[in-house]
Amino acid sequence: MRETVIVEAVRTPVGKRNGVLRDTRPDELLAMVLKELTKRAKLDPIHVEDVIAGCVTQTSEQSNDIARLAALIAGFPITVPGVTLDRQCGSSLQAIHFGSQAIMSGDMDIVIACGVESMSRVPMFSNIQGAQHSKQLTAQYDIIHQGVSAERIADLWRFSREDLDRFSLSSHQKAVRAIKEGRFDREIMAIHTENGPITTDEGPREDTSMEKLAALTPPFVKNGKITAGNASQLSDGAAAVLLMSREKAEELGLKPRFRILARTVVGSDPTLMLTGPVAATEKALKKAQLNLEDIDLFEINEAFASVPLHWLKETGANPDNLNVNGGAIALGHPLGATGARIMTTLTHELERQNKKFGLMAICEGFGMANATIIEKLTS
């Protein structure tokens, strides 16, 4: 069977909502990443057969198929199509999956899988426009806010407020260390704004502490445990991954850096909603014919601290190998970009550590999760 390989991956710095990227349009932000990706790979965009982009809030500047618009803004030939998808927080990971599947089937040889979200310029839920859920849906399921789901997970698996805050503090500490050590330097491209170039993630807080986190008020449940401090940050950002068949990469003289071993997506409880990464992990490992102990690095999206803590408790994975450079609690969670952002970080960190296998998984709204396993190639 044909293999899908990763040739290049790049991302923007992640900005806070109403932060350093607030004046940058999302279609233009994604276009910058597309241009940088092909530039780094030394690939003429005329060879790209599709641009598949994840974007969750598809309205305003993120409407009208932002993948196609960004490709045009980037100066790609008009022959390069684009399509935009929404699988909630895992949208751009799903873009990677769709691109990989197109390549493995023989339909395509070169695909850019990417994602973008500007939560400053296109606020979360602005696409809903006041619509209510179908009564046929709510008659079957208790459809609640994700924050309430995160609270229920914390209660069911007996995570204390201190547990959640301690995990969150660690996320910031790891992200700050990664920035100081230059671990993100290769994966981040500079974004030029009126205030100068932006080259560093804006979210990590060096001055946070258990005391500061403990002082935050839970917004979802009275006397609850979930706060802004132990939840992912609303953010702006974009990321892109260049996928190819191994044969095409070798034909063009490009180095395949990773191969995609397994891709999976699962449905899970639509009320708890955030527990899917466990089942997705198990399914991906089975597809790859690997054990949990074979995986060198894990990336589980930090939608809320209770999500990776639940994953750790259920899988028994080594916490030292999880989100080693911090996660969305510190780095931010630009919804449509997060899957490609995490994949970019995972590939670069596997190379930095000279490790072989990486697994990432993302929980998604209404009870879903994607998981992917990649293998670093030696030649």
TrEMBL record:
Residues 5-247 form the Thiolase N-terminal domain. Pfam families: Thiolase_C, Thiolase_N. It comes from the Bacteria. InterPro entries: Thiolase, Thiolase-like, Thiolase_AS, Thiolase_C, Thiolase_CS, Thiolase_N. Keywords: Acyltransferase, Transferase. Residues 255-376 form the Thiolase C-terminal domain. Gene3D superfamilies: 3.40.47.10. NCBIfam families: AcCoA-C-Actrans. Belongs to the thiolase-like superfamily. Thiolase family. This is Thiolase family protein. It comes from Siminovitchia sediminis. The lineage of its organism: Bacteria, Bacillati, Bacillota, Bacilli, Bacillales.
